[in-house]
Amino acid sequence: MTAKPTRTINRLHFSDLDPLRFEDLCLSLIYSLHPWNEVRHYGRTGSDDGVDIFAIENIEDGTQRTWLTQCKRFAKITQADLKKAVDKALKNEPDVPDVFLLIVSCDVGRKAHEAYVKHAKSKGIAYAYLWSQSVIEAKLYSERPDLLFSYFGIQLASEARKREQSLKGNLALKRRIQKELLTARVEQKDFLKLPNKRFCSSEAIIHSIDDDSYPDTHDPEEGLISGWFKLEFWNNYYNGIEFITGIRLIAERDGRWTIIPSEREEAGIETHRAWEIGRIPFRNIVDIDVGGDEFYPFPHIYCRFAEAGMPYEEFVYRLMDQTYFPLDAGDYLPYQEFMKSA
């Protein structure tokens, strides 16, 4: 038996990038590295004084670390060049940074790397990192395929096929929903207030694809929802279908809102009833049986309960007397925090 040929990928040609574009690539890699308090890019100004990127990292214990980064798009670099990069970066800095990161577009030998780290520490730098060509490539392929495509036009085949199949599947499902579920014609004024009037039925049965109890009812395990249940349609949205999952009491004050955990009305606080809308995205909808069966002769929707044991990607809330737009999630406060600010 002859061995199948293997597919090889050539090394990335960082030399094809303009030096400023190489800096941009380095900046993009750094942005996703840590939760930064501040990031400054000096290189493009043409007067970096040895510092291309300055950043302040937030540490978990509440402290901060300063980073200085120098980017070198060189075909080769010597031990002396590495030391010189450190000296140049520190020359005009009032304080020694906690971290110095040198990013180079070529390979670096072990001795040169160790000499660079030793020299940086002799200058008072606690952490000295060096990203060589192989390190940058590994980060692009394993962590940032989006940058791999943006800077080099390389799209990993499996990821590309996965995204393409997902997009095609979502669009096909969207067209099917429009054709088979949204069959009723309604006037514009009715659509704005009651978009569910467009559906072929007011209700649907939601099934988990892992459920085998239907049509019997059973008590779900603690912390889980039933494997099948009935919901009322509300609307379709850009990423799937919306369903009414309940009615909640909403309190509002000074542009902020919260969900009151019981039906009691809080004294001195304006309250409203609101629809709780569960959004099931296309990615969690496996199939639709429009006609249903002898038990429930209306649409059955089979879903992946892939979001913490539920099919919903999120919940939104719409005031029952003003259903045009959901309440702004950015104005939401947890109940206890809302009541403390009263």
Describe this structure in words.
This protein has 8 helices and 13 strands. Helix 2 (about 80-90) runs parallel beside helix 3. It has about 350 residues and is an alpha+beta fold. Strands 6, 7, 8, 9, 10, 11, 12 and 13 form an 8-stranded mixed beta sheet that branches. The protein has a 5-stranded mixed beta sheet with strand order 1-2-3-4-5. Mean pLDDT is about 85; it is low at about 1-10. It has 2 domains: about 15-155, Trna Endonuclease, Chain: A, domain 1; about 165-215 and about 225-340, no CATH class.
> How many structural domains in the coordinates?
2
Radius of gyration: 29 Å
- Work out the number of β strands: 13
Query: What number is the mean pLDDT?
Result: 87
- Share of helix, binned: 25-40%
Q: What is the overall silhouette?
A: elongated
DSSP strand content = 25-35%
Which helices and strands appear, and what pairs or packs with what?
Elements: H1 19-31, E1 36-41, E2 53-58, E3 64-72, H2 79-91, E4 99-104, H3 110-122, E5 127-131, H4 133-142, H5 145-152, H6 157-180, H7 188-193, E6 203-208, E7 228-237, E8 240-253, E9 256-260, E10 270-281, E11 285-289, E12 300-303, E13 314-319, H8 335-340
Parallel strand pairs: 3-4, 4-5, 6-12
Antiparallel strand pairs: 1-2, 2-3, 6-7, 7-8, 8-9, 8-10, 10-13, 11-12
Summarize the structure.
With 342 residues, the protein is α+β, with helices and mostly antiparallel strands. The protein is 27% helix and 27% strand. The protein is built from eight helices and 13 strands.
